Please model this.
Amino acid sequence: MLQSELDGKRVVVALGGNALGDAPGEQLKLLEGASKNLARMVKEGINVVVTHGNGPQVGIIDEAFEVASKGKDAQVPPMPLSDCNAMSQGYIGAQLSCALRNEFHRQDIMREVANVPTHVVVDADDPAFKDYEKPIGAFMTESEARAYMEQGQFAPGSMLPKVQACVKFVEAHPGGRAVITSLDHAAAGLRGETGTLIVADEK
Model:
């Protein structure tokens, strides 16, 4: 099939980040399966634009840099979330592009694939900032948190007493919420817009 034969309608296909799996290997297999259907659409004369989510993927990248940058002899700098987001776009797009090219070859489609990273301008006054719905990174159970204290990951004269105080508070007040943040961001922390939130186990 030639490029000139594909001047038909356009369709936007949105792939959810959660549908792409929790690891690069799993994601690649899922994308290879999706590419078969996408290629069939192209072969029928449809111009396909694929968009995708990246919640789990950017969370994995962000957590990896956070862990790698906190060791005693860490040589890895912390990475801004915007750059973690760009990295996730890059590897998801690279895997999808490769899977589509391979499928185009199998189905004899003379078509190229373009991977376009995007940037979004966000309104600082967007009401969504007051009602977060998409957590990024890992959650810890109570036992994990007590272990991430016993290993000395919080300095005794710094974060450790703050974390311990928050844990004691939510234990005594199961419906309570404790927030650790800087004084400059105290108001935002109380609104749930920033900081580390500690709550009692829902069970």
